[in-house]
Amino acid sequence: MAEITYAQPRSSRVTSISSTMATRADLDSGPTVVVPPASYMASTIPETLAKARTHVDAIVDDETSSSDDESSASVRGVVPNYAFAFDIDGVLLKGGHVIPEAKEAMKYLNGENPDGLKVPYIFVTNGGGKTEQERCLDLSKQLDVAVSPDQFICGHTPMREMAEMYQTVLVVGGDGEKCRVVAEGYGFRDVVTPGDIMKWQAAVTPFRVLTEDEYKNSRDRDFSKINIDAIFVFADSRHWGDDTQIIMDLLLSKNGRMGTLSDTFDEGPPIYFSHNDVVWATNFELNRLGMGALRVFIEALYKDRTGKTLQTATSFGKPQIGTFHYATRVLERWRKDVFGEEGPPQTVYFVGDTPESDIRGTNEFHEHVDEEWYSILVKTGVYQPGTVPRHQPRVIVENVLEAVKHGMERSRKQALQELDELGNGIEASIQK
Ligand SMILES: [Mg+2]
User: Fold this and answer.
1) What angle do CA 329, 335, 339 make, to 5 degrees?
2) Ligand 1 centre distance from Cα of residue 414 (Å)
3) How far is the CA of 354 from the centre of ligand 1 (A)?
4) Phi, psi angles (nearest 5°) of residue 277
5) How far is the CA of 221 from the centre of ligand 1 (A)?
6) Who contacts 258 (Cβ-Cβ below 8 Å, separation ≥6)?
7) Which of 29, 60, 108, 361 could join 319 via S-S bond, C-beta 3.0 to 4.6 A?
8) pLDDT, tens only, 57-80
């Protein structure tokens, strides 16, 4: 059995760099694993455990001829048959700062636990506004842990697969030009921002003047001659009023041409949101409005202006089932590339703070697939302790460290029980 650690990825596809030395340029060079400082590396306990288990496997295989016995599979090998998926905001970070227990939770998963086990995990956030590489570098520094773009899904990640569908797209949200950079990185051919449209005609947004920087970064285009084929809200809008004005102009236009007005109001481009969270948690005591609120706002305005329901809005992210299918593929590939294990884990513990997206999505996905998806709600984010969540998690815990311990302990008990049953089976067969 090969010895697998985060520092020595098994696949040649993945390269490792140090989280203390890494630069953004390093991350752009291909699939990478940002490794933690040596002080965070796990001890040799897993290797010892692996040898012990190989030994046990040999004995078990000798004494039982049924090689397809499912219960023996759970103790074979050092890779657990479960994995974790984490939401980020409200679970690991809050208001941009690390939640105190988050670093401990990561260390625990990376081998600093009573069994010395290393557990595979991925991150599934509705947030966005930066490239996946950039976000992973930030996260690896904040958590002192290995974070690879290969184990990371953000709200707009699935939009990558739509780059071929549209020629010219309007990208909304995020700081400065960042979302344009993300969209171009995804392969979108012609990316327009609200700033480009404001630069074309200042009268489009009568109450806002572009700053010097915004004006310089915005591109000179003649939007009376350009059709915009789709609108993508990549990240939270920084200027709701102006962004809403331009989005409404396009939704009511003929074929996405600025300055035109459709008679039937159904000739405008479709609009995609990277997620649907109406609220999110910051350090302020009450939840703040998120991208889902902008969608509600746009739909209400569309209805008010046209008397019709907007039919062309789509949201990605959690709780959409597609996001969880995507997460399964990412998790499966991560287990194979880094841990050398084929197939999906039997149980995925999903740790989140938002009942409407994290818990609802996990519970609904659980009903769809053979594997177990187990929802864990933490009290450090959107969920307000004392209230009854609209979507019930399997368990509610204080914070992410408790969530990790709960999942690992639960799976440990299950494995011991299976081992016990197996032991009884062997004893019975010997006595025969
Ligand atoms: Mg969250």
Assistant:
1) 165
2) 29
3) 6
4) -70, 120
5) 38
6) 197, 200, 201, 204, 223, 224, 226, 228, 249, 250
7) 361
8) 433 333 333 333 333 333 334 789
Could you tell me if 260 and 207 lie in one domain?
yes
Which structural domain range is residue 247 located in? 157-315
Distance 122 CA to ligand 1 centre (A): 14
Query: 93 C-alpha to center of ligand 1: Å?
Result: 9
Number of continuous H segments (helices) and E segments (strands) in the chain:
13, 17
Do 307 and 176 fall within a single domain?
yes
- Strand 230-233 and strand 395-397: the pairing is unpaired
Euclidean distance between CA atoms 314 and 316, whole angstroms: 7
- What's the gap in Å between 396 CA and the centre of ligand 1? 15
Beta strand 395-397 pairing with 372-378: parallel
Q: Is residue 94 part of a domain?
A: yes
How far does the centroid of ligand 1 lie from the alpha carbon of residue 351, in Å? Answer: 9
Task: Tally the domains of the chain.
Answer: 2
Global model pTM greater than 0.90: no
In a domain? residue 27: no
C-alpha 284 – ligand 1 centre gap (Å): 15
**Nearest partner of 84 among 2, 6, 151, 155, judged by Cα:** 151
Taking the centre of ligand 1 as the mean of its atom positions, its distance from the CA of residue 353, in whole angstroms, is 5
Q: What is the CATH number for 100?
A: 3.40.50.1000
Q: Are residues 196 and 247 in the same domain?
A: yes
Q: Rounded to the nearest whole angstrom, what is the distance from the C-alpha of residue 40 to the centroid of ligand 1?
A: 26
Q: Is residue 169 a contact partner of residue 191, using CB atoms and an 8 Å limit?
A: yes
Cα gap 287→248, rounded to integer Å: 27
CA 185 to centroid of ligand 1, rounded, Å: 25
The residue behind tokens 């998963």 is 109
pLDDT-based confidence at residue 146 (cuts at 50, 70, 90):
confident
Q: CA angle, corner 162, sides to 158 and 167, nearest 5?
A: 150
Q: Which of 65-74, 176-185, 187-196 shows the lowest mean pLDDT across its residues?
A: 65-74
- Six-digit token pair at 423? 């032991």
For residue 424, name the pLDDT band (cuts at 50, 70, 90). confident
Sign of CA dihedral 328, 104, 96, 354: positive
d(CA 362, CA 367): 9
